[in-house]
Each structure stands twice: as C-alpha cells, then as structure tokens.
C-alpha cells in the first residue's frame, strides 16, 4: 500500500484535514480531492503556470509540490480570490481589457498578476535591472518578465499587460 500522511491546511479560508497518499501533488489535491477545478493543469511539469496558486502569500506552481509538504499552510486559489458576482479588481481588469481568449491559463495568470504587484510593492528586486538596491520599476518590461512563467497559448499577453498596469495604477503603485 502507498504511504499516506495526515495533512491540515487552510484553503480559501476553510480548514481542511485530510489523509493523503504522499505522492499527491498540491494541484491534484485541489482539483481531484477538493474539486476546486479553477486551478488548471497544463503541463504538470512546472513549465506553463496554469496551476499557479498562492501559498502563504507567495505564488507557486502547485503541480511541482506535494500536498503533504503543506501541513499548516494557507492556500488561496482563484475560487478564493473572487466570484462571478464579486470579481476581484484584477479579474475585472482582465474582463475589461479582454485579457483572455480560451481562458485556460487565466486563473494562473490572475494569481500570478496579483502576486507580481505585491512583489513590486514589497520591493522585491527587479529581475530586469538586476539592481538589488533600487526599488523595482513598475514598467511593462518588468511585469512581462515577472509574468514570464505563465504561458498563454492564445497569446493574450498584450491585453493582460494592460489589465495589470491598470490595476497597478488604481493601487497607486509608482510607474
Ligand atoms: Fe503546473 Fe504547468 S501545470 S506549471
Ligand atoms: Fe487561452 Fe491563455 S487565454 S491559453
């Protein structure tokens, strides 16, 4: 029999106590066990970003991590970010700017986009300038670089960028 472990996590604000096969990825826990199918499986190998969720405030590829490693963690998925009746500002901006076509990559894009603005606001150094001492710029290039782990087969990148810049603007992030 496969080894199992107990794990307790908070997912979208709800406590979950489960006993899981040690080999179950966080992505499969979300989709297969908890039926939170907003988080998508694209490649299952860390290459597309469709499975991006927020764990303890940081974005990760949920396909690349085992669920049992997240005992005590707080996980937020797209279902915890907004609903059709109460869109998160980033979701609303994606709608307003046509930041998607098929929508498959969108939950991961939205999770990443929110985290990117938090990373910039928190002063996490620029990937583009490589300057560890200056605050990161909120440039289109910087956002493209920070979003580069989230692929879009439909090529909706330009519209997503507009959406993210708009949210940054309304949040008062410096240009
Ligand atoms: Fe996780 Fe592609 S499904 S990165
Ligand atoms: Fe289709 Fe991005 S909207 S993959």
TrEMBL record:
Domain 2Fe-2S ferredoxin-type: 5-81
SUPFAM superfamilies (alphabetical): 2Fe-2S ferredoxin-like, CO dehydrogenase ISP C-domain like
Domain of life according to the entry: Bacteria
Coiled-coil segments: none
InterPro entries in UniProt: 2Fe-2S-bd, 2Fe-2S-bd_dom_sf, 2Fe-2S_ferredoxin-like_sf, 2Fe-2S_ferredoxin-type, 2Fe2S_fd_BS, Aldehyde_Oxdr_Iron-Sulfur, Beta-grasp_dom_sf
MF GO annotations: 2 iron, 2 sulfur cluster binding; metal ion binding; oxidoreductase activity, acting on the aldehyde or oxo group of donors
Listed Gene3D superfamilies: 3.10.20.30, [2Fe-2S]-binding domain (1.10.150.120)
Residues making up the signal peptide according to the UniProt record: none
CDD domains: fer2
Keyword annotations from UniProtKB, A to Z: 2Fe-2S, Iron, Iron-sulfur, Metal-binding, Oxidoreductase
Entry-linked PANTHER family: OXIDOREDUCTASE, IRON-SULPHUR BINDING SUBUNIT-RELATED-RELATED
The name this protein goes by in its record: Aldehyde dehydrogenase iron-sulfur subunit
């Amino acid at each position: 029999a496969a080894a199992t472990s107990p794990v307790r996590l908070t997912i979208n604000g709800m406590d979950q106590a489960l006993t899981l096969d040690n080999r179950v990825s966080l992505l499969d826990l979300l989709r297969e066990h908890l039926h939170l199918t907003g988080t998508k499986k694209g490649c299952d190998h860390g290459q597309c970003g469709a499975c991006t969720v927020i764990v303890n405030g940081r974005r990760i590829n949920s396909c690349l991590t085992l669920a049992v490693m997240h005992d005590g963690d707080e996980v937020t998925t797209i279902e915890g970010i907004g609903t059709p009746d109460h869109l998160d500002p980033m979701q609303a901006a994606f709608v307003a700017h046509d930041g998607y076509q098929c929508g498959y990559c969108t939950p991961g894009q939205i999770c990443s986009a929110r985290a990117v603005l938090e990373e910039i606001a928190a002063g996490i150094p620029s990937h583009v300038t490589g300057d560890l001492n200056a605050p990161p710029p909120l440039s289109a290039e910087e956002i493209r670089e920070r979003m580069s782990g989230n692929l879009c087969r439909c090529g909706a990148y330009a519209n997503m960028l507009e959406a993210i810049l708009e949210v940054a603007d309304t949040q008062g992030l410096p240009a």
